[in-house]
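Note to self: keep these together.
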Amino acid sequence: MIPNLNSLPTYDKVGVNERVKRFCTRSIKKTSKVEGLKLALSMIDLTTLEGKDTKGKVQQLCYKAMHPHDTLKNIPTVAAICVYPSQVGVAKKALQGSTIQVASVATAFPSGQSNIEAKLSDTKFAVDQGADEIDMVISRGEFLIGNYQYIFDEIATIKEACGKAHLKVILETGELDTLDNVRKASEIAMYAGADFIKTSTGKIQPAATMQVTYVMLNAIKEFYLKTGKMIGMKPAGGISTSKIALQYLVMLNEVLGEKWMNKNYFRFGASSLANDILMQLVKSETGIYQSINYFSKD
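Structure:
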C-alpha cells in the first residue's frame, strides 16, 4: 500500500549542506583508512553500460572483479558486475566459482520510457539469464506529475517479476528537482518492495551527491524504525575517488550504523573508483604511487 506522503519531513537544503560538510571533515587514521578502502572496494558494483559493450569487454571486467590487483595481499573482490540484460549470460559464466553477484539494469534503462509489458519482458529476460540483482528505473515523468500510485504499482510489479533476484530501484535523483521529491520517491520505493534504493543511472548530471544520499539514508532509517526491515543504499555516478568514497562511508556509519557497513546493504555504482582505491592501497603498502597506466581502463 502506498504510504502517506503528506506526513514526511521537509528538507532545508542549507541545513542538509551543513550536515554533509561535517561528514567530510572527519579525520581518519591510517589503519582505519586502509580498512575503509578495502571495505569500499568490496562494496563496488563494477559497471559497464555502453552501447559498444562486447562479450570480450564484459569478460575482461569480470576478470578484474575477481582479481582486482594480483600483487596486493588480503584485498577483497568487488560486490557485483552490473551489465545490460544481453550480457548477463556472459558475466554469469565468467564469474563461475566466485561469490560476485551479477546485476543487470532493466525497465528501459536509463530513460524508463516504455510500457510495463516491455519492462516486464526486460526484467524477466535478465532474471532468466541468471541475474542475481535487477536495477530498475522509475518513470520520472509519472512521478513529476504526481502519479505516485503508478510508481508504486510499477515497482511492485517489477519486484514480483524478479523472483529471488534482489531489486534495486533507481530514482534518478538529478531529475527529481528537490530533496523533498527524493524523500517521497524513496518512501514509495521502499513500501513497494525495493531491496535497495539507488540514486542514479550515471547517465545524467548531477548523478550521486552526498546531499541526496543523506536524505535517502534518513528515509531508510525511519523505514527501519517503523517496519524493522533493513533496506540497502546505492549511490551511483560521479564517485570516482577514494577520498569521496570514505566520506560516504563516514556518513553511512553515522546515519545508519554498523549493521549497514557491508556489501549486503551498501554499494557504490562505479568503475573508475576501483582503480583509485587500488592506487591508494598500493601507496599504503609500498610507499609509492603506481601510474594509472598500470590499471585497466574500464
